[in-house]
Give the backbone structure.
Amino acid sequence: MASEVTLTTLRASVLDRADMTGGTFIVAAQLDEYINEEAAKLYYLLANLFEDLFYATEDITLVAGTESYDLPQTAGSTVKLHKSLKVYYLEGGKRRTLRRFVMDDLDKEEYLYGPALATGIHMRYRIMGNKIFFTPTPAAGTVEMWYIPEFVKLVNAGDKLSGSFQVVAGWEQYLIYGAAAQCLLKEESLEQAQGYQAKQAKLEADYRIEASERDVAEPQRITDVYGYGSGVTYGFGGW
């Protein structure tokens, strides 16, 4: 079951842990900053276990002669991609896996001709900065990206932790301990802060175990990166 706690509840829980309920030493904006910092730490801790706890998909329409495209974005400005999970070329309702190119592949484009450019058979990609590049330069088509999105901050009082990311009920204690420790550090209550930091570290170790191998029936396996051809032809894009 996902945690349904709101920002209002998290604020109250953090202040209670820090024994600051009703006080004015920590202003609301500072408290929210602490909560979001710790929530982001929890999010990326879980995301980087690669157990598919968080994912999103987005299509990129390829334009003839254009080699680079913006990564998935929010409001057209902020890149919302944390890590790419998979990139597919869509063709006739089917997915064709695209492989990442190394920089030495760029000079091989001149050896490829029309059909390869049109179908995406030989196309590869690479993410650099806030762009995704393709080689050979695409003629047309659509690419589908599966990715882990960035953490979305809690802003409004009613914002739920589950609205930002799915986390098991009770795991919000990790961020509560962390935010309470930050409040206490600002107050220079070092011993109490260290106590909560130790509890947070224990929870982190527990979560790494509990969240790993979520699908025990089909555990993760190593990807075969050598069975897709080599040289100029690049193999057949994962088929």
